[in-house]
Write the structure tokens for this entry.
Amino acid sequence: MERLLADAPAQLTLTPQTADLEQVSDWLVNWTVAAGIEGVVSKRLTGRYEPGRRGWSKFRTRIVTEAIIGGVTGSISSPETLLLGRFDRRGRLRYTGRSHPLTSEQRAALAELLSPPRMPRRGAIAHPWPQALPASWSGQLDRPEPLPYAQVEPSVVAEIDADVAFEHGRWRHRVRYARARPDMSVYDVPLLLGEGEDPFGTETG
């Protein structure tokens, strides 16, 4: 494979491989988070790829970080999933992803914290995201149509557990909501950074 791709264009990259577990550990700790790569895939050295079968295992790197709740599916009084965002360098709240379904306990606790968007000041935007959420934003293959949701005042910080597959300013997969962070201001949440910058600045796990 290396010989075949020796003269390939730069955008066609050969996936690195190793049988050294220390090298794998270094990739997971120092490389996958910064590069926004999900993790590593392992297979037996003698294993073969066969149609319709997966003879390999995937280990995803995960991070604990924060995001701002900008909307919910369901209703504010009974949220089903969270729509999350982060401020960019210009102070705009940008959509960054969606959570897995909430538990009944999480729904009840969040219902006490969430509120509808406040009436905007003259000349200001009531809410920074369109209604419904464009299908190209949500990125869910099982739902190609726009996503209706309830907008909320973006004042609540959520602690989330996410894998590090982060591209075009969004988490590629749904994140897991852990808890609200009333001790944090929305301005304490990491900024949404540009391509090539570490979007997390948090510990891996």
